[in-house]
């Protein structure tokens, strides 16, 4: 056995020889940011060891830190196996609240007809709280004017909570934070894996529920609303997030045929989930379409009223799983694609979340200079998803990256000499310098190709299934808080969307939240959506014959 | 060997690297017309070209589409040469069983490795995707495989790889097969932990690994 001491917390764990630093940290109750859950692929869990401890760890795995960082005592916590007693300095994790999160989303107005109804009974001197006609609780006196609900968008990365007045339909306050589960694992599959074990499930569940309660506290405080006057909470989010928040084993989602173990279009008692609202309060889980087309998408369809559209419309949620739906003549086709976490900054040399110092916008000027915008205007330390797409799109548009995704040689004709100067080698690999400290590697471009190729292939199959030529696609709606930070040009330049859709793309923002609000305010819309999901044609890409071919074609710029 | 032979082998190899199907076919036809040994033409021409393509892939010159186009050219040339292979000319090929582990249906990576193995002269049995551990073991026994190659994209299904290794051990036949693993969430550390014989980071690397494992003495030399 060996002992690992974690600083600055001064916690320690005694583990068997050969355990990784990350395993020891988890045993000690120390959180090290580990977006890929220790699969040794993302390179984001670096910790620092005193130099005399370095020979007591052996790093295994394909992903390695550059030599310079290693010589400063940095190792990857998930790859470093411990063979002697060591001390580990854990970098301070970012605060859960320091991220740029878009909470606004487009929504059609719905009639005010909530599931929760309060009625004052003067004869009894009490106010009865009814949910769908059934008695939830009774309150002393006339409290009929105080009726509130909450929508929670449980994103894989972020949480957004909105407090809504059920008597007027207005949003009173909203708050957001990072989903605390993302500290343990960034991607959905790793969450499923952790959540498939009882202890892991409880850790993920209590983490997210605790943070949701804190956010509800915050919005209630802001609006001056008592928590026990909140009667219903809508959980909007992907199918896996709903499983974890409800404390249901998500294992079936992680294996073909990827089925949901959770009954959706249904209520849970709030008390049973640990959400702290009125006694007898309810949690509503919106209908889902499939294991990978979840409540975030049904809420999105509701928000933009896709099923009522008279136009031919494509709705795309750009994220780790690119979920999408196509509507024509009231008929809906839907699918999801394994885009992977590149757009979340994983597997990208300088990838990061949308935190301070992340490059979120980038454009190349005619004089060959770069205009770079970072979050909070801070010095650039990394690249977040929207910045990544901008950069790659500009590289393609200015001929620095060819159709095949390869960096051209610096002496290639027709590229601006000032841009050519930025084509350099870093760690022996072709790279493009954004600043002295931040660059994009050839491998990063490949990761973007894989991610956008997956989404584009999904789009192509939806169009094919519905027999819709691109020219007949009248509108493309891009949802997701991530989508809101993008520019339409970048999407068509990198070919995530067909070039023919240019000029027809609209960003609709966080529709998981705005659609959840519609569910909250209008009980009928929930039943409509339940009926609708029965009719949606799910296109299972795994069963599409020439998926390989279409995907490979979609890799090009 | 004549200079013309070598020039033709070079043309075949270049056709593969240049993703030029027509040129591969033309060069292969010339091999046949001149009565040059087809086996040699595949080895020193087409396979050598794929090896160079794999190297370009490794060096990030080529990406998946290029690799696939190279293999298209390779197969085009192969189709011409295959009927002219003398049955005694070729050495016994090493056999590989490949598949995506149970619960996972993502097979693009596996298909790429399969193509690279085939074009490098391995005899590949592709079980497809969502394959239970027992089927890998059964098939490997049945065909007398040298290598069992396991692929997965999903973190949630990677434990199925360990199950294959365990079953081999339980049946007391672990040393009869080399087990190699790869895919998005897989790492060398994982391969070590489950007791696999090797991990490859990409398709080109998988070929090097497979070759080294079937000919350990040569590789060490």
Written overview of the protein:
The complex is a heterodimer of chains A (557) and B (221). Chain A is of the alpha/beta class and 557 residues long. Chain A has four domains: 2-89, Ubiquitin-like (UB roll); 116-297, 2-Layer Sandwich (Nucleotidyltransferase, domain 5), CATH 3.30.420; 304-341 and 447-554, Nucleotidyltransferase, domain 5 (2-Layer Sandwich), CATH 3.30.420; 351-428, no CATH class. Helix content of chain A is 27%, strand content 26%. Chain A contains 14 helices and 28 strands. The longest helix of chain A has 26 residues, at 198-223. Chain A is globular, with a radius of gyration of 25 Å. The termini of chain A are far apart. In chain B, α1 packs antiparallel against α2 (21-33) and α2 (21-33) packs parallel to α4. Chain B is of the alpha/beta class and 221 residues long. In chain B, strands 2-1-3-4-5 form a five-stranded parallel sheet, sandwiched between helices. Chain B folds into two domains: 3-84, Orthogonal Bundle (Methyltransferase, Methionine Synthase (B12-binding Domains), Chain A, domain 1), CATH 1.10.1240; 95-220, Cobalamin-binding domain (Rossmann fold, 3-Layer(aba) Sandwich), CATH 3.40.50. Chain A binds chain B through residues 20, 36-37, 39-41, 60-63, 79, 81, 187, 189-190, 192-193, 196, 251, 253-256, 338, 340, 404-406, 429-430, 442-443, 446, 449, 542, 548, 551-553, 555-556, and chain B through 60-61, 63-66, 68, 102-108, 111, 129-130, 153-157, 184-190, 192, 199, 201.
Give me the secondary-structure topology.
The complex is a heterodimer of chains A (557) and B (221).
Chain A (H helix, E strand, L loop, with lengths): L1 E6 L3 E5 L5 H8 L17 E3 L8 E3 L7 H5 L2 E3 L3 E3 L3 E4 L26 E6 L4 E6 L2 E7 L7 E7 L3 E8 L5 E8 L9 H8 L2 H26 L6 E8 L1 H8 L19 E4 H4 L8 E4 L9 H10 L8 E5 L3 E8 L2 E8 L19 E7 L5 E5 L7 E2 L1 H13 L19 H4 L2 E4 L2 E5 L5 E3 H24 L9 E5 L8 H6 L11 E5 L1 H11 L1 H13 L1 E2 L8 H8 L3
Parallel strand pairs in A: 1-7, 11-14, 14-16, 17-26, 19-28, 20-22, 26-27
Antiparallel strand pairs in A: 1-2, 3-5, 4-6, 8-9, 9-10, 11-12, 12-13, 15-16, 17-18, 18-19, 20-21, 23-24, 24-25
Chain B lengths: L2 H15 L3 H13 L4 H21 L5 H18 L13 E6 L7 H12 L3 E4 L6 H11 L3 E5 L7 H12 L7 E5 L5 H7 L3 E2 L3 H12 L1 H5 L1
Parallel strand pairs in B: 1-2, 1-3, 3-4, 4-5
